[in-house]
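Hey, can you fold this one?
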Amino acid sequence: MKEGAVVTATNEITLVTLQNCPSDIAYLSKIFEQIAKLGINIDMISLAPAHGALTALSFTISDNDLGAILEFTATLRESSNIRAIVSSGNSKIAVYDERMRNTPGIAAKVLLAASAVNTDLRLISTSDVEISILVTPADYPNTLASIESAMAE
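Sure. Predicted structure:
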């Protein structure tokens, strides 16, 4: 790997997507507040563009919290029109590099490496120094190897 680029991987990640979720920021904050009260740590977060008053909210948690999040989503379903899609057993691959702040194309390089092995991307999140992707267990080994190889070039 080039100096500065660090590739890490975390397994046993659950992806939760709440469809038909009100796009009101106060409502979204209450969802995260309720999840925090359950002692569940949220990692990746992605919010789809609103379609009228509704949006889709995706986030990841540890598979260890699967039971608690299933109970939470069941109560959401009872009190709203929110539909929860929950997928466990995923893996997060993150590329951290301080050079991302001033170097265009690193995200493209990561995604190109993932596409080279036909990865089924579940979620992408970024910061100014990191890009993280969530992948299925089946795609994890090849995707990790492809990204590590690309970042070493």
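The chain has a mean pLDDT of 94. Let me know if you want another pass with a different chain boundary.
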